[in-house]
Design brief:
This is Riboflavin synthase. Pathway: Cofactor biosynthesis; riboflavin biosynthesis; riboflavin from 2-hydroxy-3-oxobutyl phosphate and 5-amino-6-(D-ribitylamino)uracil: step 2/2. Keywords: Repeat, Riboflavin biosynthesis, Transferase. Its EC number is 2.5.1.9. The protein has 3 domains: about 80 residues, Elongation Factor Tu (Ef-tu), domain 3 (Beta Barrel), CATH 2.40.30.20; about 80 residues, Elongation Factor Tu (Ef-tu), domain 3; about 35 residues, no CATH class. It is about 15% helix and about 35% strand. The chain contains 5 helices and 12 strands. A 6-stranded antiparallel barrel has the order 1-2-5-4-3-6. A hairpin with a 2-residue loop joins strand 9 and strand 10.
């Protein structure tokens, strides 16, 4: 479990295929890794939860399986690429961003990136299957960064980067056309599945009366 608050920027120092060729092993260097991570620890790399298979002072090695390669941008990693890093959340930590699992839902494409005053605005074209979970002023995770959604339309959504986020992530430098990892709000997905169990397949949708009938709402 993570919060979407990037702790450090790491650099890919090695990429090699796994023995059977369906996955890859990556090595990352970063100041965050000055103390070796425990074997089996979780580390979010550009928003993707990976397992540490080896670590020493200043670096960590992780393995990327075929499912992760198919669903995220990690399949395109190359030596020298800068990535966001966040260690797993401890139970005693403050949840400064939002609940992030590190299980990327899909890939979006950056269509626009521009400065607006002190902020930096991004517009991300999003798969329709994910867009229904994204709401104005809700939370979205882009490459492991917890952000507030500014606006949503039929093709995608926009967010703004404050100066701190610009300085401590690589998002402001992401060029138009780049692919980014997206993780939508896990709570929204669970709510949808729970409610779906009470709505017949032939139903035209959810109404306030239907929510009251099954105990999800009160009042007139």
């Amino acid at each position: 479990m993570f919060t979407g608050l990037v702790e450090d920027l790491g650099k890919i120092s090695e990429v090699s295929p796994l023995p059977r060729g369906s996955g890859q092993r990556i090595t990352i260097t970063a100041s965050l890794l000055a103390e070796p991570l425990p074997l089996g620890a979780s580390l979010a790399v550009d928003g993707v939860c990976l397992t540490v298979v080896s670590s020493d002072r200043g670096w960590a090695a992780l393995e990327v399986g075929p499912e992760t390669r198919a669903r995220t941008t990690l399949a395109t990693l190359s030596i020298g690429r800068v990535v966001h890093l966040e260690r797993a959340l401890r139970v005693s930590d403050r949840l400064g961003g939002h609940i992030v699992t590190g299980h990327v839902d899909g890939i979006g494409q950056l269509e626009a990136s521009q400065r607006r005053g002190d902020s930096w605005d991004l517009y991300v074209v999003t798969p329709p299957s994910l867009l229904r979970y994204i709401v104005e002023k809700g939370a979205i995770c882009i490459d492991g960064v917890s952000l507030t959604v500014n606006q949503v339309d039929g093709r995608g959504f926009s967010v703004s980067l404050v100066p701190h986020t610009q300085a401590h992530t690589h998002l402001a430098g992401t060029v138009k056309g780049s692919l980014v990892n997206l993780e939508v709000d896990i709570v929204a997905k669970h709510v949808e599945k729970l409610i779906a169990a009470y709505v017949p397949a032939s139903s035209t949708g959810i109404s306030f009366d239907k929510l009251k009938e099954f105990g999800f709402a009160r009042g007139d």
